[in-house]
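Quick illustration, no need to memorize.
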Amino acid sequence: MLGEDPTDDDLLDDAPEEVEAYCVHCRQVVEMERPTPIWTRRGAPGTRGECAVCGTTIFRMGRTEAHRGLRSPEIRTMVGEETTARRPRAGIPRLAAFINYAAIDAELARRVADD
């Protein structure tokens, strides 16, 4: 109603979500200060902030309340690739293999590599 003071429930609705993450330095789960929504190079959502105890940077994977209303960027722009499709170079085959072998199998590995 008009003229009434807001209740505690009204104030809690506007409060930012508390984000907890594991601090490697403190070796405990702590509340994150200044949580910032980010996306990894592969497009996964995460949140970066500071440890409330020691001040080091902490990170938590997953979508949080801070991501609401934000769109994730296109994956090509995050990885640094060009937005146009690349064509393979003509005449250059893209065949490669790594052969891991034990010393007693050296002769067999040499024959496989020659083939």
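Confidence is low (pLDDT under 50) at residues 8-12.
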